[in-house]
Task: inverse folding
C-alpha cells in the first residue's frame, strides 16, 4: 500500500483486485472430482431403464412387419440419423434452459476438436453394424463385450492422469470375460459351425476390431477435451457432449443416407406404413433420454465407468428377454451372469491377495 500527498489529503493507493485474481496455472487446477454414489446409481439406473426400452423399440422396428403389405423397415442409416436428431434437440433445449442466452453450444472448443470424437462415435456404430453382414450376431456380441478393454487403454493415452488401480483393471477384465462367456455358452451347435475362420469371418472380425478401436477413442477423447477446456476456465457439461457428438454424427449420417439412397425411401416407407411411426417415436425418445444419462455418466464419472454400465445393460437386456420371450439359459450361462454381477467384489478380493504380500514385504524392510 502506498500513500500520495495532495494538499491536506492523503490518497491511499490500494492494489487492484484485478491484479490479484490471476488465472490459476494449468498444473494448479484441481482434477475432476467424481460424483456421489447416489448420483452414480441414479445415472446407471437411468441408462439401464432407458436402453432396455430402446432395445424393445429397436427390435420392433427392425424385426417387425408394417402396413397391409407387411413390409420390413431396413433403413439403418436413417435410424442413426433419427436418433442423432432427437439427441441433438434434447441437448440443445437443456443447454438453453441451463445457461439461457449465454449458452455456448460448442463450449469454446473448435469444430476440429469435436469432429475427432464424433467421427469415432459414428465409426463405432457403423463398423459394428457392418460386421453383422459377415459374422453371426453371437460372435459380434462376444467381440463387442470387450469394449471396456480398449476404453481403458484409451484413457491411459488421452487422460494419463486418471488413476487406474489394479482393482478397477481386474473388474474390467472379469466383467468382459463374464459377458463373453454368457454369449459363448449359449451358442448352438449350428452357430458354432458357422463361425469358421474363412475370409468372410476375417472381414467381419476386422470390422469389429475397427469398431472397438473407435470405442477406445471417442470416450477417452471426450474426457481429454473436458480436461483441456476446464484448464482454460470453460466447463464442458454432459449437455455439451451430447449436443456436439450427436450434431456431428447426425451430419455425417445424413451424408451416408444420401450415399445409400435412404432419405426418400425411408420417408416414403413411413408415409405408406404409418403404423411404424409409434415405435419410431419410442425409439427416438428412449434413445434421447438414455443418451442424456450416458453423457451425464461420462461427464461425471468417466468413460470407463460408462462402458462398464453399458456392458451390464446388454446383459440385463438379454436376461429380461429370456423371461419375457421364453428363451432358455444354460447352467453355465447363469454362472457367467453371477461373474458379471460379482465382478467388482471378485476384483477386490483378487487385488487384495496380490497387494497384501507387497505391503508385508515393505514393512519388513522398514523394520
Result:
Amino acid at each position: 500500500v502506498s500513500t500520495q500527498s495532495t494538499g491536506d489529503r492523503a490518497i491511499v493507493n490500494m492494489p487492484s483486485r484485478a491484479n490479484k485474481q490471476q488465472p490459476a496455472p494449468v498444473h494448479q487446477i484441481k482434477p475432476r472430482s467424481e460424483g456421489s454414489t447416489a448420483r452414480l446409481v441414479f445415472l446407471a439406473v437411468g441408462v439401464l431403464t432407458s436402453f432396455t426400452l430402446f432395445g424393445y423399440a429397436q427390435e420392433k422396428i427392425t424385426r417387425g412387419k408394417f402396413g397391409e403389405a407387411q413390409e420390413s423397415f431396413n433403413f439403418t442409416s436413417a435410424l442413426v440419423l433419427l436418433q442423432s436428431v432427437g439427441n441433438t434437440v434434447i441437448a440443445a433445449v437443456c443447454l438453453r434452459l441451463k445457461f439461457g442466452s449465454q449458452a455456448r453450444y460448442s463450449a469454446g472448443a473448435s469444430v476440429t476438436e469435436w469432429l475427432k470424437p464424433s467421427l469415432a462415435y459414428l465409426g463405432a456404430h457403423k463398423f459394428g453394424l457392418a460386421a453383422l453382414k459377415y459374422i453371426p450376431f453371437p460372435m459380434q456380441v462376444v467381440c463387442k463385450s470387450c469394449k471396456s478393454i480398449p476404453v481403458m487403454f484409451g484413457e491411459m493415452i488421452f487422460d494419463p492422469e486418471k488413476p487406474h488401480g489394479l482393482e478397477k483393471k481386474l473388474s474390467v477384465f472379469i466383467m468382459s470375460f463374464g459377458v463373453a462367456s454368457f454369449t459363448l455358452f449359449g451358442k448352438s451347435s449350428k452357430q458354432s459351425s458357422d463361425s469358421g475362420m474363412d475370409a468372410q469371418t476375417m472381414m467381419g472380425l476386422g470390422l469389429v476390431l475397427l469398431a472397438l478401436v473407435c470405442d477406445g477413442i471417442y470416450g477417452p477423447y471426450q474426457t481429454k477435451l473436458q480436461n483441456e477446456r476446464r484448464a482454460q476456465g470453460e466447463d464442458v457439461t454432459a449437455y455439451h457432449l451430447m449436443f456436439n457428438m450427436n450434431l456431428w454424427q447426425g451430419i455425417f449420417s445424413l451424408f451416408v443416407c444420401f450415399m445409400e439412397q435412404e432419405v426418400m425411401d425411408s420417408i416414403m416407407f413411413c408415409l405408406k406404413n404409418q403404423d411404424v411411426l409409434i415405435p419410431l417415436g419410442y425409439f427416438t425418445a428412449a434413445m434421447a433420454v438414455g443418451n442424456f444419462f450416458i453423457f451425464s455418466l461420462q461427464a461425471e464419472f468417466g468413460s470407463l465407468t460408462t462402458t462398464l454400465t453399458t456392458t451390464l445393460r446388454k446383459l440385463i437386456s438379454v436376461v429380461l428377454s429370456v423371461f419375457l420371450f421364453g428363451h432358455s439359459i444354460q447352467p453355465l450361462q447363469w454362472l457367467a451372469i453371477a461373474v458379471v454381477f460379482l465382478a467388482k467384489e471378485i476384483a477386490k478380493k483378487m487385488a487384495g491377495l496380490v497387494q497384501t504380500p507387497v505391503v508385508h514385504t515393505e514393512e519388513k524392510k522398514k523394520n
User: Anything to note?
Assistant: The chain is about 75% helix and 5% strand. Residues 149 and 172 are 7 Å apart (CA to CA). The two ends are 55 Å apart (CA to CA). Residues 199-231 form the longest helix (33 residues).
